[in-house]
Amino acid sequence: xxxxxxxxxxxxxxxxxxxxxxxxxxxxxxxxxxxxxxxxxxxxxxxxxxxxxxxxxxxxxxxxxxxxxxxxxxxxxxxxxxxxxxxxxxxxxxxxxxxxxxxxxxxxxxxxxxxxxxxxxxxxxxxxxxxxxxxxxxxxxxxxxxxxxxxxxxxxxxxxxxxxxxxxxxxxxxxxxxxxxxxxxxxxxxxxxxxxxxxxxxxxxxxxxxxxxxxxxxxxxxxxxxxxxxxxxxxxxxxxxxxxxxxxxxxxxxxxxxxxxxxxxxxxxxxxxxxxxxxxxxxxxxxxxxxxxxxxxxxxxxxxxxxxxxxxxxxxxxxxxxxxxxxxxxxxxxxxxxxxxxxxxxxxxxxxxxxxxxxxxxxxxxxxxxxxxxxxxxxxxxxxxxxxxxxxxxxxxxxxxxxxxxxxxxxxxxxxxxxxxxxxxxxxxxxxxxxxxxxxxxxxxxxxxxxxxxxxxxxxxxxxxxxxxxxxxxxxxxxxxxxxxxxxxxxxxxxxxxxxxxxxxxxxxxxxxxxxxxxxxxxxxxxxxxxxxxxxxxxxxxxxxxxxxxxxxxxxxxxxxxxxxxxxxxxxxxxxxxxxxxxxxxxxxxxxxxxxxxxxxxxxxxxxxxxxxxxxxxxxxxxxxxxxxxxxxxxxxxxxxxxxxxxxxxxxxxxxxxxxxxxxxxxxxxxxxxxxxxxxxxxxxxxxxxxxxxxxxxxxxxxxxxxxxxxxxxxxxxxxxxxxxxxxxxxxxxxxxxxxxxxxxxxxxxxxxxxxxxxxxxxxxxxxxxxxxxxxxxxxxxxxxxxxxxx
Length: 791
Prior knowledge:
By secondary structure, the protein is of the alpha+beta class. 45% of the residues lie in helices and 18% in strands. The model is unreliable at 240-246 and 773-777 (pLDDT under 50). It comes from Flavobacterium gossypii. This is GAF domain-containing protein.
């Protein structure tokens, strides 16, 4: 490899000064005595070193001839301009430079010993293709424009990164083929022009070191820091790559380049949607607020003060403080803001309102720890970048709103993605067609869809809830009785004995039976009678005060009652529902890939779900009864998996609760309509209402002629009305029995419901699987952590 190239190149480099030497030879033959004498002397000096004419091929030779090269290039690098021009000798796109001017030497010295001069964003691929393009232009006469701006990013002594644009003078360069070079046809050239990304093709047509680049290039730099920084900021802000937006280091580096202030810091404070309050932005980690440091949100007047508020909000102009200490003296009414800034070592600052379509989005903050650094003069530099900041921040907030809308649609409305197209179709009529714009909105109806209903229900939840209430209330009364007996021993007040008597009576009632109003009765008595009295006794003596304080610390801080057992129960119930719903939702994503269908689920004391499938849901696809059968089998498998998930989790739960599972089979297609007033889907028509009646009453029904519920723990109940439905589900059960997921089957009739008779049911045993021995047992704490992460 050529020692003058660190990266692979189609060129073999020969640094030659032949063209300069030829000019000197012409001068030596001229009539100008002093010029001729100088040229003759210089030619005589270099005569013993033919490599200066033929070509230097190593760094060592350049170092050897350093002074001679300097003399040869004296006319191109005049001494009078060495402290002004930023110039050096190099070859295009290479990072090796020599014969540098004094100003460039100074710039590189200030950058530090560990700084390496490298062209920005210039990788090996681009380097190779650009060198090939030189050959295409200089040797083959192509007119390829590859002169995109290239830069060096060089920090100064204060650490501010300055951006220098690179200009090349190639007047002293020549290109020659070698025996390794490949002769190109026009077809080859056309192929190369259309395949910039195919590096292998470029290397095939221009093998490494198959051409000679002879001569030298002159590189001139000029300080393009402000323009380049603005361009970088624009690229950074307008990029669709979310990782590029609002990166504190990037933004601050760019602004420091623009303002040439080494300690400049950037911040941002957002306005609330109504414009009356300031709040920390969602990207606060990247651009934190200097206006708000403690509170997440504050009234505009309280956060800013009247004068800044009038300027920023009223006039929508920049608010500048060039010297915060001086501002504090001259504007004592703004003392709170000034002291707040000084506490953060802010000595000068610029606050710029971000305004889009006359709507205030936030305030961009530039601050410095040096007074006068930021002022009303350099504030005008912000005019160059504010349009990009405004567009980016507006886009960010719009994206956030879209995410919020998406969450609302997913979590709080019934517009499932499978039917969203129908709503868009109807909405578009009211936005694009002038003739329909003022007409009332039509209700959305899907006809001839097959319903599927299923549930996994938590049984015994009412009993467990009452047990938790009784435990907490009993513990509450016991704590109070111990405390009041201690107080009575110290204070001897008759009223305390009265309270002790009443609490003992409540405890007795609680042990006998828990009535519907017992919880509210005891809670009201404790909060309204006992606690005010305890607060009064806190000032009596130290022993009593310590006991009372210990009692209040043992209570739940939100409701100021013992809330241990109830909290465990509520959290257990909530987490079980979330776990079941999460698994069902994830499995639904798989089911949607079979054939799009409408899906909704509800969390009560358990999880219910409705599925509707049919041609009207996805009219662009061809519907077949096979997809209905597939969805029914999927539903049965899903309930098996939900039961197993709960079976593995159950031993670690604070409350031992049973679950039962149910499927309702309904083979007659129905219509569903989106109720505009209720914002949800419902069955459409009187006949279809029979399905809803069955669905609402079936899980509480009994086996015909008995008092036994049709649902039972450890089993899945499948309710149907037609013989072919039973035959279909027996096939599915047989498959799952083969997979050791289901066991024995029993058949029975369902008691008559109001207006509905003739229902039958299959009840099939679930074969629970044991976790693998290598697997860690799944605990209640694992569930808490898992769901916390997902939410």
